[in-house]
Amino acid sequence: MTNEAGTHGAILQDTAPENGDHPLVELRNAGKSYGNIRALHGVGLQVHPGRVTCVLGDNGAGKSTLIKIVSGLHQHTEGEFLVDGEPVRFSTPREALDKGIATVYQDLAVVPLMPVWRNFFLGSEMTKGPWPVRRLDIERMKKTADQELRNMGIVLDDLEQPIGTLSGGQRQCVAIARAVYFGARVLILDEPTAALGVKQSGVVLKYIAAARDRGLGVIFITHNPHHAYMVGDHFSVLRLGTMELSASRDQVSLEELTNHMAGGAELASLKHELAQVRGVDVDRLPEAEELTVPAATGEGKS
Ligand SMILES: Nc1ncnc2c1ncn2[C@@H]1O[C@H](COP(=O)(O)OP(=O)(O)O)[C@@H](O)[C@H]1O
Ligand SMILES: [Mg+2]
């Protein structure tokens, strides 16, 4: 369903689904103001199990504000926020986590010098023995971490190695596996591929797909339409705090998505400028007009 105007989202989605088949997470006509600054308004979003919902947008579009609402860091100031069909208002990230909403931030909260398995259980360590001689169940933690990483298809040579020695992509993957193990139903990833190279990005995308295949609802924040299109089932594009596009995979092509992200008209004028300044071969850049209008008969370039 296309949400043409964003602000009508609530009206379009107002009919409650029958047989209790609610989205895991839903925003209806939601918004957030920081004092006088209206960072987000009229936003609709649905997260379903086993599906990847991509949220795209340029810097300042409101992506982080949106996920801060869902992850319990901030509260919405307009519209509705529902979990399992029930209106909610979280005061802390802990409350979101209790509902199974886990967030993997770009700057992960890990202790670099601690082994991988130790970071996997950080803050939720397994123990054994009766009080007062309870101690860490190291063997069981190592075994479980190894098993859980393998279940996600993540193979690391040695779980004893400090997590700081892993690549950024591998660390993201460990964080994803950790969230899955601790019972997340909704996984929020804030720009997990932004700082990564091509190959590493591919690895992270693979585990996003693995989390989806295990039935989690994934919210994937990115400004890269190519990454989004590789794993996404639904695409929401934010621009200046409002929803410019909300479309499922069969409603939008990669070209259209790229064009929405680039801002078709802006890209076209930029191309003209580039051509004048440096003699850039503009014909090798994507043709913005062609992306929206069905291909013309090959003429019309004045
Ligand atoms: N804590 C805040 N106080 C005031 N304005 C904020 C705050 N956080 C974000 N904003 C503003 O809200 C808008 C959206 O920001 P943000 O959600 O971070 O966008 P994105 O993550 O897409 O880059 C920006 O104009 C930003 O300056
Ligand atoms: Mg951001």
Automatic annotation (TrEMBL):
One of its GO terms (molecular function) is ATP hydrolysis activity. It holds the Pfam family ABC_tran. Keywords: ATP-binding, Nucleotide-binding. InterPro entries: AAA+_ATPase, ABC_carbohydrate_import_ATPase, ABC_transporter-like_ATP-bd, ABC_transporter-like_CS, P-loop_NTPase. CDD domains: ABC_Carb_Monos_I (cd03216). Residues 1-22 are annotated as: Disordered. Residues 25-265 form the ABC transporter domain. Signal peptide: none annotated. It comes from the Bacteria. PANTHER family: CARBOHYDRATE TRANSPORT ATP-BINDING PROTEIN MG119-RELATED (PTHR43790), SUGAR ABC TRANSPORTER ATP-BINDING PROTEIN (PTHR43790:SF8). This is Sugar ABC transporter ATP-binding protein. It comes from Streptomyces resistomycificus.
